[in-house]
Write a structure and sequence with these properties.
The chain is built from ten helices and twelve strands. By secondary structure, it is α+β, with helices and mostly antiparallel strands. The strands form three sheets. A seven-stranded mixed β-sheet has the order 2-3-4-11-5-6-7. A three-stranded antiparallel β-sheet has the order 9-8-10, with no helix packed on it. Strands 1-12 form a two-stranded antiparallel ribbon. α1 runs antiparallel to α2. The chain folds into two domains: about 100 residues, Hypothetical Oxidoreductase Yiak, Chain: A, domain 1 (Orthogonal Bundle), CATH 1.10.1530.10; about 180 residues, Malate/L-lactate/L-sulpholactate dehydrogenase, NADPH binding domain (Ribosomal Protein S8, Chain: A, domain 1, 2-Layer Sandwich), CATH 3.30.1370.60.
Length: about 350
């Protein structure tokens, strides 16, 4: 594996925003997307960080991504809403939808918001963390399905038909760390295959198969006709399909005739609608602390709550810098230069 570059997070975020601004993105939207991507890197999820910049630029250039698209509510009830992201950045659309869901949860106890015409929304845990920080339970779901719609084979299938179709859940707390669950329904997220390819390292066994259906650890095999595999077999497949059905079903304007559909659903729940907030907080804190107190297995320092590794990663990377593969940095720097954006010195 090639030596990684270490880049300070603040200059990296500034560079990312400048790149998107130079590509025609309004400054406020560019800053929001840049913050999301760099926070993903800081959280240890490089698959959803600045490695995405080149793909987003390609989508802007081709017209698939509307860099200036601003989300708006196009239909709502007291507890629900449909947001149209107008083909814009998914990070912008999902953040807006979460704001709407939390407002409705404050007023009605729960808010359910779906998003249509939305680009890639990035790391779902970001929204679960935001909701939990504001005291809300949150569910964030993205799914797509259909012939050629994704890189994943359904359980027992020999053709691509599903996306990675991730789920995230956030549970707020008072004295303990919020619980943040964020997972793709595949063994590994497609972005992590991108990271492995950029680092020139093999994938763990059991993540992908090649175009002939043979198990592979070579990241390149995914992009030459291979497939991601569902996590936990039929269980991951079931969660993946449900994500696609809910996402498409709650956002579709007309029924599909080719089996293809996709969408995002954001749910916020206000614990105060169910009783005493003090009782809720004390219950979550007590149960979470009890989990953390479980004796660790041999070789494990401490049992962590879901979301703990991301919090530790943010603290470490804020101090030491964000590791970026040379191949990834070179592509980002080339794109910046092409757009006339100054590339700052790296911190090695």
């Amino acid at each position: 594996m090639a030596e990684m570059y270490l880049v300070a997070p603040d200059p990296l975020e500034t560079l990312t925003a400048a790149i998107f601004s130079a590509a025609g993105t309004p400054a406020d939207l560019a800053a929001e997307v840049a913050n999301h991507l760099v926070k993903a890197n800081l959280s240890g999820h490089d698959s959803h960080g600045v490695i995405r910049i080149p793909a987003y630029l390609t989508q802007i250039e081709s017209g698939r991504l509307n860099a200036g698209g601003r989300p708006e509510v196009v239909h709502e009830t007291a507890a629900t809403a449909i947001v149209d992201a107008h083909g814009g950045f998914g990070q912008v659309g999902a953040a807006y939808a979460l704001e709407v869901a939390m407002r409705k949860a404050t007023e009605a106890g729960a808010g359910v918001v779906s998003i249509r015409n939305c680009g890639h929304i990035g790391r779902l845990g970001h929204y679960a963390e935001t909701a939990a920080a504001h005291g809300f339970i949150a569910f964030v779901i993205y799914g797509n399905a259909g012939p050629g719609a994704g890189l994943t084979a359904p359980f027992g299938g020999a053709r691509r038909h599903l996306g990675t179709n991730p789920w995230a859940v956030g549970v707020p707390s008072h004295d303990t760390q919020p619980v943040i669950v964020d997972f793709a329904t595949t063994v590994v997220a497609e972005g992590k295959v991108q990271v492995a390819r950029a680092k020139h390292v093999p994938l763990p066994p059991g993540c992908i198969v090649d175009k002939d259906g043979h198990p592979s650890t070579n990241a390149e095999d995914l992009y030459t006709g291979g497939m991601l595999l569902p996590a936990a077999g039929h269980k991951g497949y079931g969660l993946s399909l449900v994500a696609a059905l809910i996402g498409a079903g709650l956002t579709a304007e007309t029924p599909p005739d080719n089996g293809v559909g996709s969408g995002v659903v954001v749910i916020a729940i206000d614990p105060r609608a169910f009783g005493s907030l003090d009782t809720f907080n004390a219950t979550i804190d007590n149960m979470s602390a009890s989990v953390e107190a479980v004796a660790p297995a041999p070789g494990v320092e401490k049992v962590l709550l879901p979301g703990g590794p991301e919090a530790h990663s943010r603290a470490s990377r804020h101090e030491h810098g964000v590791p970026i593969a040379p191949d990834t940095w070179d592509v980002i720097a080339k794109a910046a230069t092409h757009l006339g954006v100054h590339v700052p010195d790296r911190i090695h």
